[in-house]
Amino acid sequence: MPVPPQKVPQPGSWPAAKSLDRSTGLPFVVGLDDSDTPYDVVDALALAPFTTGEQPWAHSARIDRLRSGASLLPAGAQVLRTVIEDSRDSRLAAGDGWTLRAVRWRGGGGEVTVTAVSEELARTVLDGVVREAVVESEADSAVTMGFWYMSARRGPTRTAREAATTSWASIRRNYASSAVGALDRLMTVSHETLVGRLILLHGPAGTGKTTVLRALAHEWRRWCQVDCVLDPESLFADPGYLMEVAIGFDDDEDEDEDEDEDNDPEPGNRDHGDPEPGDRDHAGQDDGGDDADGPDRRIHDHASGASGASGASGASGASGAGDRGTARAGKTRETRRRWRLLVIEDCDELVRGDIRGSSGQALSRLLNLTDGLVGQGRDVLVALTTNDDLAQLHPAIVRPGRCLAQVEVGSLSYDEATAWLGTTQGVGPTMTLAELFALRDGRAPVQTTKPDAHSGPYL
Questions:
Q1: How far apart, in whole angstroms, are the C-alpha atoms of residue 272 and residue 288?
Q2: For residue 351, what are the CA distances in angstroms to 84, 181, 191?
Q3: What is the pLDDT of residue 5?
Q4: Where are the domains of the chain?
């Protein structure tokens, strides 16, 4: 049953800044009902000092890989609340002038949000926690990718995950000679040599189109961020969702920040990444999978703040949501404009030549994203994969000047397949990459067999 809203008492370790103008604070009232959990209560308590203005600075970091045994708490922190769940645990802790919310996910990652009476204190506490918790970078084989989906609660949502990638050179022999030349050229493209914004990979299932995209993410990692759209049918049916993805997290404000960075004695933290599915990722620029000599891109850091003169920031800054309704995020370290590659897989219905009605409207919006008004001024590329033959595709997709690359990723010929496998046993006239791996590893599919129609008693 619903519980009447209650004022949340604040622990004594949340001292108010004496010089703070009280008019910049917000009254803080929490309404709880039987759908809320202890985890939600920790989230609400973490917002309290930020909302009231007692701790007007908030910094948040997402860590994809944690050290074994990392507590995500500073030494000497006073733990105020602890919540243990099957998929995560959450802790609320406080110290002199700061409050911290730490979440650990069973998958190995975590998130830390710190609010404090000053920006310097918030950043110092957060940096200390992250320094002790993050796993050092290993081989340059993983790239941080974004995943977009429409959340019923939060609307267009982006979450960032580290994905294993591979170099093109290591998998080049897996592809038919008819496609290798075109893929060689695609892998060496840079933002200075782009001609067209649409990448079309077509061919039978099991030929390795997704693996090509993983290799592309690896080869382009220094200048292009890869985002995968999980629900393209929703993306092209909802103009608001489409605009959110088109605008993305690479905000034009970054250019202003670059101009001002030399005058800023303390550049702020990067602002990118998504704390957890369900939390929106709007502000700043994602540096996932960037230069090997850059900072660890497994750390996603949000920053927001307010002073008595400028007014209070929105509450979402404390939760790491980075919503545009909050005060501008802190300036970024090593900020640079990066292109984005939006990946839409298995979009057969979207690109067929016989589309009508809503599918036709979806195709129009897709093309508008690549070279129409929606895509103007946005450094966005789109990669599509389809199992359909080129002759079945809509002519608007393949018209000259639109495609950066149009590659048929086909099956390997008998000679190519035998050279790949090292034997002729079991090799047919043509073989997909998936069939060759199954044949090599002896992985026969699990299937039923039809009974002999001539066996059994005569009736």
A1: 9
A2: 47, 25, 26
A3: 54
A4: 3-141+251-319, 167-246+338-410
